[in-house]
Design goal:
The chain has 4 helices and no strands. The chain is an all-alpha fold. The protein has one domain. α3 crosses α4. It is elongated.
Length: 95
């Protein structure tokens, strides 16, 4: 989950030391949207390339997120089966 957080939000431990860090997915999308929001001209090649990179990065992250969700569903089912008390984020089964 932390790796996904870094991929979406960036690595503040690296950027906080004024070291170059890869652009996060959020930054890339905000850059495209913010840079073209009030423009009436065609989208630039750089924005198109940045969008394509974001698309690829998001697809990879989504595969990982779905795998985590699947693992989490198994854990939640086990918790429910053994009668564990409700925990935040876990949908209870009501009789």
């Amino acid at each position: 989950m932390l790796d996904l957080k870094v991929r979406f939000s960036g690595d503040s431990t690296v950027s906080g030391r004024a070291e170059p860090a890869p652009m996060s997915l959020n930054s890339r999308i905000y850059n495209v949207v913010g840079g073209h929001w009030d423009s009436q001209s065609a989208v630039t090649g750089n924005y198109r390339d940045s969008y394509m990179i974001a698309d690829q990065q998001f697809r990879q992250a989504l595969v990982e997120l779905n795998a985590i969700a699947s693992d989490l569903a198994e854990v939640e089912a086990e918790l429910q089966a053994v009668g564990a008390p409700w925990t935040p984020g876990r949908i209870p089964q009501w009789p």
